[in-house]
Design brief:
The chain is mostly beta strands and about 400 residues long. The protein has helices at about 1-40, 50-55, 375-380, and strands at about 85-95, 100-110, 115-125, 130-135, 140, 145, 150-155, 160-170, 180-185, 200, 205-210, 210-220, 240-245, 250-260, 265, 270-275, 275-280, 280-285, 285, 295-300, 310-315, 320-330, 330-335, 340, 355, 360-365, 370-375. The chain has 2 domains: about 80-200, no CATH class; about 205-388, no CATH class. Helix content is about 15%, strand content about 40%. The strands form 8 sheets. Strands 7, 8, 9, 10, 11 and 24 form a 6-stranded mixed beta sheet that branches. The longest helix is centred in the first third of the chain and has 38 residues, at about 1-40. The protein is globular and about 65 Å long.
Length: about 400
């Protein structure tokens, strides 16, 4: 009995020990789970980041990093010093009414290259007085000039006066840009040559050209007489002639040199009465580059530049003879103190601007039959599709 009692006591002691160990193990697991819940947050089922990533603070409002390889990174402006430049002054002598003038240009050239730009220029009289001065900013990009300016000049003499034309070209420039020209001369023309040096100066701001400066001469073109009693007045004058693109062909636009007022203005001002009332428009010489189709087509040929008339439908064969005679269109003129610019399309103007901004008509002769056309379909039929 004593041995049996001892056995029972041993078994009871072992059971208590096992029970105590299990209890401690369960409490340890619960304690570990409690600590883990404080240190971590539930995560979605995806690969776990590295320990260093877990340790980084999380800021929900921060934008995505710009260093991501999937996004373009703007290259910072180079802190490299500007290239070495060579500075020089160039002089050109010009004679106007037996008086000497000098164009002085201050030029910067990047050493070892042909890249150069005019920083400023002056027009001086025989006593070295500055008649006019203009300057331009100079900036660099990738070791070259960001923009360049070229300046030149020539003297001219017409039947009514004499002066100087200063030509400028800015690069880079818009397609078909012809740069700019500026007119200098003696006010009152030949009547006051050398009578008063103060009468010499600019006849206006530069004329920025959406086309090309052609030449300077005497206006000898008379617009076609208008219908319905409209009047067209043309006076012989000294003019600057410009080629201006209309979208289908070029017109030759004249700018009058007014020697009396010492200014520039439209050479022609025309008022025409049409079926829609009075309109301000003139006829202009044209230049074309025709690209005709090799298939028969037709045009609506109007007897006047007025769609109130009934047109004739004229067949145009691939071998038909087509002559391009003149254009008739409104041209607006705008001016400020900084520049003159003109184009066929009505765009933002910096200064004086004359732009073709209305209904453009062209007079043609097809196999001997004359008339006017003005729609894009008819322009294409005679080989003048819209471009530019």
């Amino acid at each position: 009995m004593k041995e049996q009692g001892s056995s029972v006591a041993v078994v009871a002691l072992v059971a208590v020990a096992v029970s105590f160990t299990a209890c401690n193990h369960i409490q340890g697991m619960k304690s570990a789970q409690a600590v883990t819940g404080v240190a971590t947050q539930p995560a979605p089922q995806k690969p776990q980041p590295s320990a260093s990533a877990q340790a980084a603070p999380t800021i929900p409002s921060s934008p995505p990093s710009s260093a991501s390889p999937s996004l373009p990174i703007a290259a910072p402006k180079s802190d490299a010093p500007p290239p070495k430049v060579v500075v020089s002054d160039r002089s050109q002598t010009l004679i106007v009414a037996q008086q000497m003038f000098r164009l002085l240009t201050h030029v910067q050239n990047i050493e070892g290259t042909t890249d150069e730009t005019v920083e400023w220029w002056e027009l001086r009289d025989a006593k070295e007085h500055v008649v006019y001065r203009e300057s331009y900013p100079v900036a660099f990009e990738n070791g070259m000039f960001e923009n360049t300016v070229g300046i030149s000049a020539n003297s001219f003499t017409t039947k009514q006066g004499s002066g100087i034309l200063v030509h400028g070209m800015d690069l880079p420039s818009a397609p078909d840009s012809g740069g700019w020209v500026q007119v200098f001369g003696f006010k009152y023309g030949r009547d006051k040559y050398a009578a008063d040096e103060s009468l010499f100066g600019p006849f206006g701001p530069p004329i920025f050209i959406d086309g090309e400066f052609l030449d300077i001469g005497t206006d000898s073109f008379r617009p076609t007489p208008t219908s319905f009693g409209g009047a067209t007045t043309t006076v012989m004058n000294d003019v600057l002639k410009f080629r201006v693109w209309t979208g289908n062909f070029n017109i030759v636009y004249p700018v009058l040199i007014n020697w009396i007022t010492g200014s520039l203005q439209p050479a022609w001002r025309c008022i025409e009465t049409t079926s829609k009332g009075q309109v301000q428009r003139c006829s202009y010489p044209i230049t074309v580059e025709a690209h005709r189709d090799n298939q028969p087509t037709f045009v609506r040929l109007f007897p006047e530049a007025d769609d109130g008339f009934t047109p004739k439908h004229v067949i145009v064969q691939p071998r038909s003879k087509i002559e391009y005679l003149e254009a008739r269109t409104p041209v607006s003129w705008n001016e400020d103190a900084k520049a003159i610019s003109f184009s066929v399309n009505d765009e933002d103007a910096k200064a004086i601007s004359f732009s073709v901004n209305g209904d453009v008509w062209i007079k043609v002769r097809i196999d001997g039959l004359e008339g006017w056309i003005h729609s894009q379909e008819d322009f294409e039929a005679v080989g003048l599709p819209q471009a530019g």
